[in-house]
Amino acid sequence: MVQKAFADRLMDACDQHAEQIAEQWYKSLSIQKRTSSFRTHSKENCIRHAVFLYKNLKRMYFADNPYQEVSRILDASGYAEEQYGRGIPLSEAVYALVLIRRHVWLYAESSALFSSPDDMYPALQSTNRILLLFDYATYIVIQKYGKMAKH
């Protein structure tokens, strides 16, 4: 029960502060050497994808079939298709996802969402679940890039 309560707090924070977290993510994205191709695209388009993922993190996190839900969310966002169409290299599109994931935890830490020793185990469990979701997202994006490259 403690784990679900913590996860609910984290997911609600991501939903309620999606724009703020996405702004911080964009700052990291725009200065990273590993994501230099994103600098040629509008901030608004970049942030739109991050906001969409943050706002839908709870749906993915609590889904009975998280792989299918991650796939649905990525399809709805058009993330892979848009990055591919803009000529963003696959490595950079994947690293942008890594940064999106990282900023969930940077926000949680800066907001003191887990500050007591009792929060540490649920935080670890939530970390593992979010890692799984973004592993799925990475796999799906790589798969889509491969299909688009064949056409």
3D architecture notes:
By secondary structure, the chain is mainly α. The chain has one domain (2-150): Globin-like (Orthogonal Bundle). It contains 7 helices and no strands. It has helices at 2-16, 18-31, 43-61, 66-77, 79-85, 90-110, 117-150. Helix 4 (66-77) packs across helix 7 (117-150). The mean pLDDT is 91.
Précis, in short:
The protein has helices spanning 2-16, 18-31, 43-61, 66-77, 79-85, 90-110, 117-150. The chain is built from 7 helices and no strands.
Average pLDDT: 91
Q: Output the radius of gyration.
A: 15 Å
- Fraction of residues in helices? over 70%
User: At the first level of CATH, what is the class?
Assistant: Mainly Alpha
Which architecture does the CATH hierarchy give at level 2?
Answer: Orthogonal Bundle
